[in-house]
Q: What sequence folds into this?
């Protein structure tokens, strides 16, 4: 066996503990919920090639999940001393993974999955008895740890909407507002379609009261209209979201007449998720349950 003359059990345990916080059960904002190959050593243990191989397996899973590529980590061979440079290399990779704990390489390590759609075919608006229509649903996790693993591993709940087959200036305004909007709710913030921060409200910031996590407002004479997403937690394992389509515009001379035209067309609200599904980190999907449809 390789003799751990420069890397002590204590040194090894520091790296292994940091790696385990990310890949394993972890706590709070740490933990993907995966099974570890490595484990802590007793203080008198001699670190050998088998220990280092198991640690490399865990570190490789974390980095590949985060970046899509395997890290450069030296293989420790039987009967070979574990040098200080090898310790520094492994420690550096672990620290990088720790810093980038929420990262996920979406192209190969995740799936984008449509979970819910709700459509409305009838007209709506402030003067048509339905100024605000809402798509209301819950996301149900197995338990609080499942919820942590989902978001810690890069999971997102995504919101989008489309409006088609209508007519008029108000229809065109809503189309422009909705068809360019994607909302991404993640661990500690909510992002837009360009990954710019909309609000600093994410999974770890929810309370029992609804909070606005995203708003897209109309323009010009339709500036009162808005698309809005609200979120809360009803328990440690259940999140609830409301997607609101608020046709608050009441019309006026600026629109060429007094009174307000309805919103026509087929409105569809779509909910999808980004979930860790790669060979390195796999987190089960939560359940998505409708509370109220758009109709």
A:
């Amino acid at each position: 066996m390789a003799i751990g003359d420069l890397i002590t059990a204590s040194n090894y345990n520091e790296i292994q503990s940091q790696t385990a916080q990310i890949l394993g059960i972890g706590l709070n904002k740490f933990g993907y919920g995966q099974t570890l190959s490595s484990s802590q050593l007793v203080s008198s243990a001699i670190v050998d090639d088998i220990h280092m191989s198991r640690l490399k397996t865990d570190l490789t899973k974390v980095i590949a999940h985060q970046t899509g590529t395997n890290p450069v980590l030296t293989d420790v061979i039987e009967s070979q001393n574990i040098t200080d440079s090898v310790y520094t290399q492994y420690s550096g990779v672990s620290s990088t993974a720790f810093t980038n704990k929420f990262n996920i390489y979406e192209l190969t390590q995740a799936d984008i999955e449509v979970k819910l759609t709700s459509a409305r075919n009838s007209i709506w608006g402030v003067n048509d008895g339905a100024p605000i229509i809402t798509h209301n649903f819950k996301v149900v996790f197995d338990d609080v740890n499942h919820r942590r693993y989902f978001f810690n591993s890069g999971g997102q709940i995504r919101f989008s909407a489309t409006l088609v087959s209508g007519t008029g200036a108000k229809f065109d305004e809503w189309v422009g507002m909705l068809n360019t909007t994607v909302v991404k709710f993640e661990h500690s913030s909510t992002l837009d379609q360009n990954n710019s921060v909309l609000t600093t409200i994410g999974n770890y910031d929810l309370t029992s009261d609804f909070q606005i996590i995203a708003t897209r407002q109309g323009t010009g004479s339709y500036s009162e209209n808005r698309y809005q997403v609200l979120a809360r937690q009803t328990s440690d394992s259940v999140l609830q979201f409301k997607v609101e389509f608020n046709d608050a515009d009441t019309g006026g001379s600026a629109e060429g007449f007094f009174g307000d035209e309805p919103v026509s067309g087929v409105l569809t609200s779509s909910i999808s998720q980004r979930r860790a599904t790669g060979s390195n980190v796999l987190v089960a999907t939560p359940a998505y349950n409708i509370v109220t449809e758009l109709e």
Observations:
- The chain has six helices and eleven strands.
